[in-house]
Design brief:
Helix content: 25-40%
Distance between the termini: 23 Å
Strand order of the largest sheet: 3-2-1-4-5-7-6
Number of strands: 7
CATH superfamily: Vaccinia Virus protein VP39
Protein name: Methyltransferase domain-containing protein
Bound molecules: S-adenosylmethionine
CATH topology: Rossmann fold
Organism: Rhizophagus clarus
CATH architecture: 3-Layer(aba) Sandwich
Strand content: 15-25%
GO molecular function: methyltransferase activity
Amino acid sequence: MGVKNSRLNFSKKSPKQKGPQSNCHDLWTSLKTGEKSEHDEKEHLQHVIIKELFKANFSSPIHNILSDPDAKILDVGCGSGFWLLEMVADYSTPKYFGIDNLSTFPTSTVPSNVKFTQHDLLEGLPFPDDTFEFVHIQSTGSEFTEAQWETFVYKELARVLKPGGWLEVCDPEIEFSNCGPTLKQLNLTVCNCLMARNVNPQMALRHQSLIKSLPIFSNVIHEKGHIQMGNYTHKIAKISTMSLKEACRDAYKGPIGKIMKIDPKEVDSLSDKIEIECELYKPYYFYHRVCAQKVIT
Ligand SMILES: C[S@@+](CC[C@H](N)C(=O)[O-])C[C@H]1O[C@@H](n2cnc3c(N)ncnc32)[C@H](O)[C@@H]1O
């Protein structure tokens, strides 16, 4: 299929783990991959928060391609496909492709110009060089080690972009500020678990400079959005607090809870405590969007 130089010999996760894995599924959730609807609800909430924060599903200057029937758009780590399905609803002309290493995307009732494929990015994307006008990757900063980002991920995304096409990387900082004691302890445990897997919890802060350092990209744009919890005068604070509380509840019920030696009977009171602390301490974190154009040689 003309895919060049993309397969690298990474040991992606610890050797004990088998089959496709996702750090977000492993660490932040008590759900098995099969328990789709609850997972979808959380992913949808996050999608709504990001869209409200940046006031659009993308920040790259790509309006010209959205009415082009030959244009191709790729979402990498597409999850349940909310971003792609909303894009196709808003801009129905291009062709859309979603890739995820887990089959969490819809398999039926998908518009004819949308194709989802289960595939591991670290195996190299299953597309020839110079295929897409726009490549989007969101909330996957913790899915790859810092070394994988540095040596492979941006370059592989660039490979499948057409010259003149746009890459957009959107990620949250995982380390929160102004946490109360309960959230602080949980947040610290999550960050430590990610670091033990050679993942940088603050990878979102590195995208801009790493992309800028690659000569294949130019016109790098950076946008930053502030997600405030507990302060309900902020438009998305209520929904962000709710989403955080549910994420924490799941984390306590899953592997993180085991590491923290949380008694399952305490889970509800701890997540209620997090909500109360949000109102007292007003914790916040940032989402970053970095857009860059592949150079025309
Ligand atoms: C936090 S979710 C984000 C989903 C979606 N992009 C969104 O914004 O809602 C991260 C996604 O990356 C996927 N992922 C993790 N490692 C991957 C890999 N090596 N190749 C492809 N997808 C991967 C996970 O399965 C998961 O669906």
